[in-house]
Amino acid sequence: MNDRDEYWMRRALANAACAERLGEVPVGAVVVIGDQCIAESYNTPIRSQEPTAHAEIQALKLAASRLGNYRLDDAELYVTLEPCMMCSGAMVHARIKRLIFGAHDPKTGVISSAAKLLDEPYLNHQIDYSGGILEDDCARQLKDFFKRRRLENQQKLKLKSSEFKQKKG
Ligand SMILES: [Zn+2]
C-alpha cells in the first residue's frame, strides 16, 4: 500500500458513505487515470431498481461516457469492497489497467476470496490488482451498516408484535 492508493481509497470510502445515507449497502468506487479522478460513484440498486447499479459499474459507465470510449486502458479502479462476478466482468470488458479494493468479501468477492476470476487463463485482458487497501476502514463501514440495519429490523419487529398484543388485548 502506498499514499496514493490510500488517498483514492479514502475518496471511494466517501462515496460509499453517500450510498449509506440513501439506505444502500455502502460501497463506493473511483476511476482514476494518472492523477485525475475521471469518475466516482456508489451503490444504488435499491433506489434505481437496477440490479447492475453496483458502484464499480456506475463509475465505469460514467468514465466511459466522459472519455467518449468504453475502453479505459489507462484507468485504475478503486472500490471499497472486493468486486463481484458482474463487476469483474465489466472491468475486463472496459480493459482497465489496475483494480484496487478495500475489504475482502469471502462470500461474493471473486478476485481473491470466493474465486480468482481475474487470474483465469482464458481472459484476453490481464488486470493488475491489489486488495486489502484500508481494509479495516472499509470493512468497518460495512459491518456498522449491517449491524445498524439488524437493530432497526429488530425494533420494527418489536413494534409490530406490541401492536399485535394491543389489538388482542
Ligand atoms: Zn458488483
Give a brief rundown of this model:
It is built from four helices and five strands. It has helices at 3-21, 55-67, 85-93, 135-168; strands at 28-33, 36-42, 76-81, 98-103, 128-130. The longest helix has 34 residues, at 135-168.
Descriptive overview:
There is one protein chain. The chain has helices at residues 3-21, 55-67, 85-93, 135-168, and strands at 28-33, 36-42, 76-81, 98-103, 128-130. The N and C termini lie far apart (61 Å). It is of the alpha/beta class and 169 residues long. The model has no long low-confidence stretch (mean pLDDT 96). Strands 2-1-3-4-5 form a five-stranded mixed β-sheet. Residues 54, 56, 83-84, 86-87 line the site of zinc ion. Zinc ion binds next to helix 3.
Low-confidence stretches: none
**What is the β-strand count?**
5
Strand count, sense and closure of the main sheet?
Answer: 5 strands, mixed
Bound molecules: zinc ion
Cofactor: Zn(2+)
Subunit structure: Homodimer.
EC number: 3.5.4.33
Catalytic activity: adenosine(34) in tRNA + H2O + H(+) = inosine(34) in tRNA + NH4(+)
Fold topology:
Elements: H1 3-21, E1 28-33, E2 36-42, H2 55-67, E3 76-81, H3 85-93, E4 98-103, E5 128-130, H4 135-168
Parallel strand pairs: 3-4, 4-5
Antiparallel strand pairs: 1-2, 1-3
Helix pairs in contact: 1-4
The structure holds zinc ion.
InterPro entries: APOBEC/CMP_deaminase_Zn-bd (IPR016192), CMP_dCMP_dom (IPR002125), Cytidine_deaminase-like (IPR016193), MafB19-deam (IPR058535), tRNA_aden_deaminase (IPR028883)
Protein name: tRNA-specific adenosine deaminase
Subunit structure: Homodimer.
